[in-house]
Amino acid sequence: MDNNVDVIVIGSGAAGSAAALQAHADGASVVILEKCGPDNAGGNTRLSGGGWFVNQDPAAARTFLRALNGSFTVADDVIDAWAQNTHGLSDWLRELDAPVSMTGEFHSTAEYAELDGSSCYAGMDTIGGAMGNELLYRFLVSALAERGITTLFDTEATALLTDESGAVIGVETVSGGTTSQMYARRGVILATGGFEANPAMVRDYLRLENPKIWGSPSATGDGHRMAQAVGADLWHMNNMMTITGISGDTDDPSGHYLALWNAHNYVFLSQEGRRFTCESAEMRHGHVFKEGSYQHFPVRSMNIVFDETMRLAGPLSPGRDVLAVGRLVLDEGYEWSADNQTEIDKGWIVKADTLTELADKLGLDPAVVETSVRRYNEACTAGVDESFGRDPATLAPVVTAPFYAVSGPPLLGWSNGGPRRDGHSRVLDTAGNPISGLYAAGTASSTYSAAKDGGFHIADALAFGRVAGAHAATRVSADA
């Protein structure tokens, strides 16, 4: 293949695919570089729910995003571009012949309905009205193929090439043990995903201790490293989404999603065995409302103690037929047992006949655990949780032996921070100036500095992928 093209896109998820499709539509020659093979490419787009929120009112969307960001502000031009370009995404996909339909099962209303501007949120669209199952990614792959856009799989981008002025003019790659260079006449677009699978970056920026990951193990911060090497500034590197999880196999970096849907006979205990929070607080894509603000949750290891009633109520982790999301479900085909017994036998769920025995197995003080559970059960009897204000409808006691616990760190869904960019998706240096020829989109440089709603990540990736592709396609080398 010719090693000179107009636009090079690094990464084949929603942002990279959208960038390539838009640049191609605007007359540019495009190639996508993807470090994974064809079976496990696509980053978190392939492993996610694959839905994007329907923005029915760009003016309200501007207000909504500012409210979600709070004091962690994002530049006005970025907000304007986000509000305008997340509007009409479904129409654009339909123009590509995507079978777009709204899902009625998930995110039919805004999670943050109390915030100004939430009226922009009109539900979430997906491919075929279904969540997950790689549906969005597989459609994008087919759309690229129909247009003759090449994706070079098993090709890792290792460095950005610059000219004497500092403009980005290409990419150094490694494929099959061979290092080579590819040059871009108009621009390079970083769509490399987040850094949640890079333990050092997770510790440094997110301050998490050895979390399990939900999505792609290829999200190792490659774009962040390459952008920094050419002088890029960074933004909101401490923002993320964590969820409750189950560690599973100790030697696997991935974990299982813990869905507390089937029953309420459980309590959250700290690493010291004490109840520490309201278990019924709505978990809104990595945040809960606590102490007057939206805070990340969970952020540290905890023990989720439950009883036989909950164990028999259904699987703790939903299967592919319910929520076809996550690497262990989609790539490994793991099916959680209906009664959780298989996972008990594996040791993923700790079982004991008494709370004292359970505490011993967890390495906790039995007296502390027994007191914590007793006080919670007393709140259930009273119908009011004086300590943490748990929703009375969820006050179900932990009383039926045997007793169980899931113990471990949170599940890290994705990081949000990356190279700072402007409303044209151009990467900015530490002085706030565009680095000529360099763009970023998707989780490599997510718009979201704080809270975000359902379907926001895919919408952001598609929107700014298109913005980057359009700007790069019409750029000439002398322009920023």
From TrEMBL:
InterPro entries: FAD-dep_OxRdtase_2_FAD-bd (IPR003953), FAD-oxidoreductase_2 (IPR050315), FAD/NAD-bd_sf (IPR036188), Succ_DH/fumarate_Rdtase_cat_sf (IPR027477). Its cofactor is FAD. It holds the Pfam family FAD_binding_2. The keyword Flavoprotein applies. Keywords: FAD, Flavoprotein, Oxidoreductase. Residues 6-453 form the FAD-dependent oxidoreductase 2 FAD-binding domain. Gene3D superfamilies: FAD/NAD(P)-binding domain, Succinate dehydrogenase/fumarate reductase flavoprotein, catalytic domain. This is FAD-dependent oxidoreductase. It comes from Rhodococcus globerulus.
